[in-house]
UniProtKB/TrEMBL annotation:
GO terms for molecular function: histone binding. The keyword Ribosomal protein does not apply. Residues 165-237 are annotated as: Disordered. Residues 128-146 form the U2A'/phosphoprotein 32 family A C-terminal domain. This is Acidic leucine-rich nuclear phosphoprotein 32 family member. It comes from Sander lucioperca. It is found in: Nucleus. Belongs to the ANP32 family. One of its GO terms (biological process) is regulation of apoptotic process. Pfam families: LRR_9.
Amino acid sequence: MDMKKRIHLELRNRTPSDVKELVLDNCRSNEGKIEGLTDEFEELEFLSTINVGLTTVAHLPKLNKLKKLELSDNRISGGLDVLAAKCPNLTHLNLSGNKIKDLSTIEPLKELGTLKSLDLFNCEVTNLNEYRDNVFKLLPQLTYLDGYDKDDKEAPDSDAEVYAEGLDDDEEDEDDEEEYDEDAAPGDEDEEEGEEEEEENEEEEEDDLSGEEEEEEDQNDKEVDDEDDEGEQNGETMNCNKILNMYAALSKIRSVTFLEFEHNFVCIIFP
């Protein structure tokens, strides 16, 4: 797919002024030139043209807001002086895998005062003696060369930083969820209160039932006691009758009368 068609597809019914990032990797350039990219992409901040066969950046449009330009794995060997005029606010430039052989080729980049990171991996220039020291002297505005600063400290990976931030956000969300669970939501509190009330009602019902059972037991005990008292009284009456009848028979007593006085029997004998 050629570059013009690729740009048309990347727009996806958007206007060029709405585009902030544009990736044209692995498409075909016409005679090693950038085509289809115009000044209308005024909001463009990131442009990637990896492995598109570029030999020059001379046809790059004016992109004042462009900050990151990916040109790796092309055939660029010079003509970098146009970048200062076309992309004055460039901060990251990747030229790795191009045909850059000496320091004079990258010398025009000193005009890019905002340039902080430059990548020249797999370029012949990296084989020069004291390559790193000379590049930092030639471009004093640089912070990172090939991913490392002057003290060989690795540049932070923006993708890794974003990922780490995402992990931090997830951990905070988990902490919030745990705190939220510990504090308990209003609905959960209502449910707990309802369960407590139900438990209290069940306990009261159990108390009422136990009270009724106790009353029934007391009543049954009373009935048993009354039956025992009646049995005792009947037994005493039968014994008295037997004794008096025997006595009357022996003494030839004509009549015997029994009177109950305060649950006791009184015998009155008539001759």
